[in-house]
Design a protein that fits this description.
This protein has 520 residues and is mainly alpha-helical. The chain has a domain of 235 residues. It is 72% helix and 2% strand. β1 and β2 form a beta hairpin. α4 runs antiparallel to α11 and α11 packs antiparallel against α14. It starts with a helix and ends with a strand.
């Protein structure tokens, strides 16, 4: 089968989402009834879900700028599920006149996330991240229509442009040294991974770390890592709870998937300079996020700093992947993806509960708006408590196992007497444990307000069944994954190990011709 046709067939789900989004934008100008458009957004997402499930577990396939593997399957499934959950959350929350713009933009973002998860080319990876970013500007503008929201959206827009410029500048360095933007080559066409030995031995090989640092800086904005985090609190506070849920999850998924592709395929094994930089970023990001969240009383601003802190935890897995080609680094990349899934589930459940609660006819804005929720609506309070405890890493919920997999990788390298960075990872493990303890304070404070403060007489809750369903699904998943975390981790781990272990020497013959399947 020709490569072009093979690539087109691989892109059928993404193409269906983009065409559906275009149809929503066009048809929305003629019909503004909100009831139609959530259904129209759900149908292509269900089609994409069926296609992803059908392709799950297939052998690794390289087809031009795309790769079909387990990491891509995990990212695509997570992206489609995010889209379906966001449709449920926004079913009754979106303004009638803006429904088509919201759901069309959401489909575009899901398509972008799916493309990022399968990218085998740096330019294609950039286009995928931009397909996530550009509709995000529109979705944020469709939130609250006030001065604070507009200011926050403009801030996000300009900082996102800066991040994109840094990413492209880093890509230019990598392209200049390798002569290609293809991550993994096939046939006679060599990729960056195939040329790594030649690049590192050349006179300009010393510029590769600079390019990778610039790429990391560009993607650091997506995951709200310090010092690229300062837009998050204002943007979260200025938008709605539904939009904040989207902003907390979609860019982070794009950033982590992109970093996984780059670390596995472009970064040389045992890249200690990069690992040291990421360790510093992880410690600073965790600490800034958790400490600043301690005195927040605005729920979305609190969750913004929580998102920053979780970016620091995710960077632990990245540091493990950079510092070691042994089992510690390999499991670190898998743990990063595992933790990402758990973070997304808990965050969606949290914002779903915040959107469900109403105070004086408006969305919950402050912690006091949650006062007495256990008395006014006990099921929502209990499910929100599960999400808070999971984010805090309290056993036996899923969040505990996510932190454990990350911290255990750092501890493993800290006790490896032969590893040159064992001291760095010892500090990282201690900092992570201390930050987990700090984070528990503000998560437990939310539970304290719900269960130990009297309710406000004018604080009714809505009867939004979509939001109820979202919170229920997320809380149940956190409990079920906590009961059997190995099943999800096993589904994520093999591809990170397999991809990192593929030799970089082209003469070993590990790369298949275009479009040919490589058995797992």
């Amino acid at each position: 089968m020709p490569v072009d046709l093979e690539t087109i067939l691989i892109l059928v789900p993404e193409g269906a989402l983009i065409l559906s989004a275009t149809a929503l934008f066009v048809l929305g100008a003629a019909d503004r009834r909100r009831s139609w458009w959530p259904v129209c957004a759900t149908l292509p997402l269900l089609f994409a879900l069926v296609m992803v499930v059908r392709d799950w577990g297939r052998p690794v396939l390289y087809s031009g700028p795309l790769i079909q593997d387990a990491t891509g399957d995990t990212g695509r499934l997570l992206s489609v599920v995010l889209g379906l959950v966001m449709v449920l959350m926004a079913w009754r929350q979106t303004r009638r006149k803006l429904a088509t713009e919201f759901f069309g933009g959401l489909l575009m973002v899901v398509a972008g996330l799916m493309l990022v998860s399968r990218a085998n080319d740096l330019v294609f990876l950039f286009l995928g991240t931009e397909l996530v970013s550009i509709p995000t500007y529109m979705l944020l503008f469709l939130g609250k229509r006030n001065r604070a929201s507009s200011e926050a959206t403009v801030k996000y827009f300009f900082l996102s442009l800066l991040a994109s410029a840094l990413f492209l500048y880093g890509v230019s360095f990598v392209y200049g040294m390798s002569g290609t933007t293809l991550l993994v080559g096939s046939g006679d066409l060599l990729g960056i991974r195939d040329k790594l030995p030649e690049i590192m031995q050349s006179q300009i090989g010393g510029l590769l770390p600079l390019g990778l640092v610039l790429v990391l800086a560009g993607l650091g904005f997506k995951i709200t890592a310090v010092p690229f985090h300062f837009y998050a609190p204002d943007v979260y506070q200025g938008t709605t709870n539904v939009n904040a849920a989207f902003l907390a999850c979609a860019p982070k998924i794009a950033g982590i998937l992109a970093l996984t592709r780059i670390v596995v395929n472009v970064v040389p094994a045992e890249f200690y300079l990069g690992a040291k930089l990421v360790i510093v970023l992880a410690i600073v990001t965790m600490t800034v996020g958790n400490v600043c969240a301690l005195w927040q009383t605005h729920v979305r601003r609190l969750m913004a700093y929580s998102s920053i802190a979780h970016a620091g935890y995710l960077l632990i897995g990245l540091a493990l992947g950079l510092a070691s080609a042994s089992s510690g680094g390999l499991h670190g990349l898998s743990a990063m993806l595992f933790y990402l899934v758990l973070y997304v589930v808990a965050t969606l459940g949290t914002f779903g509960a915040f959107a469900y609660v109403r105070s004086r006819g408006e969305e919950a804005e402050h912690l006091d708006d949650l006062a007495g929720l256990s008395q006014t609506h006990a099921p929502i309070a209990a499910m929100l408590a599960v999400c808070m405890l999971s984010l805090a890493g309290i056993p036996p919920l899923a969040g505990f196992w996510g932190k454990l997999t990350l911290f255990s990788g750092a501890v493993e390298l800290a006790f490896d007497m032969t590893h040159p960075m064992r001291g760095w990872f010892a500090v990282l493990a201690v900092a992570g444990a201390l930050n987990a303890a700090i984070a528990a304070a503000y998560y437990l404070r939310v539970i304290l307000v719900m269960y130990f403060k009297p309710p406000h007489s004018d604080s009714p809750v809505t009867a939004d069944h979509g939001l109820q369903t979202v919170v229920a699904i997320c809380s149940v998943l956190l409990v079920l994954i906590g009961a059997d975390p190995g099943r999800l981790l096993d589904a994520i781990e093999p591809q990170a190990v397999r991809a990192r272990q593929v030799p970089v020497e082209p003469e070993l013959g590990m790369n298949a011709p275009d479009g040919e399947q490589i058995p797992e």
